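User: Can you model how 2KA sits in this protein?
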Amino acid sequence: MSRGKIPVIETFGPTIQGEGMVIGRKTMFVRTAGCDYRCKWCDSAFTWDGSEKHRIRMMEPAELFEELIQLAGNNFDHVTISGGNPALIGEAMNDFIMLLQEHGMKIGLETQGSKWQDWFLLVDDLTISPKPPSSGMETNFEILDEIIARLNPAAFSLKVVVFDDHDFAYAKKVHKRYPAANFYLSVGNANPNEKGDISSRLLKSLDWLWGKVIEDPEMNNVKALPQLHALVWANKRGV
Ligand SMILES: C[S@@+](CC[C@H](N)C(=O)[O-])C[C@H]1O[C@@H](n2cnc3c(N)ncnc32)[C@H](O)[C@@H]1O
Ligand SMILES: Nc1nc2[nH]cc(C(=O)O)c2c(=O)[nH]1
Ligand code: SF4
Ligand SMILES: [Mg+2]
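Assistant: Here's the modeled complex, given as structure tokens:
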């Protein structure tokens, strides 16, 4: 029995998860529309800036699952839900996750940690990605504290995008505040609309970030990664 619909802006895959705790795994993507943030460098701004409003479809969980099967048949057993902020969606998302799990799927989900949902507890690979100063957003640490207190440290990870020294200092602060959480740093892509190969630019940023981690004794237990899909496929959409 479904309770409501999910605003979907795109589905794609199978592809390779390019970021964080599930990096390298084959997965399908469901991207929801709408975000409570407006990050300056958001690589998925089309989910919230109105530019692709016409592509948003309100979908029943069963209809959305059927679309994934149409796209990929049996060629997947993992689904990543991203956005926008999928945590803006309540019961319909709960139902979609349960439906996927009934079909033996593992679920990854990306959210920024601005809002709790009870269904977070169902997600196999939950990534909470609080936003650094370069985003122009401000983290509400009271809310983030509450979210992280409710989660089992083994069942989620933190992922902070880093563009500059201020972002690195913010990442350190977050890591220190939640020492039990698996912690990932992710290289910022300063121009998510650039055409053509961006690998040398991203590798240069990764070199800088690795240098920062290597010299910092407070960052001994973190994993610093590039957006692997952007290294291989640049700013291509739908991968
Ligand atoms: C598009 S967001 C959607 C999910 C959720 N709103 C969030 O931000 O976590 C998915 C991931 O992409 C990251 N991201 C967005 N723009 C980026 C950029 N220009 N460079 C690197 N990572 C970026 C976000 O920080 C987040 O971890
Ligand atoms: N391949 C691939 N990996 C990703 N990891 C997180 C993504 C996202 O936009 O949430 C993403 C994405 O858009 N594509
Ligand atoms: S929170 Fe995520 S989707 Fe929302 S603007 Fe920031 S990066 Fe984009
Ligand atoms: Mg992306």
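A couple of observations from the model: DSSP finds six helices and nine strands in the chain. The longest strand covers residues 6-16.
User: Helpful, thanks.
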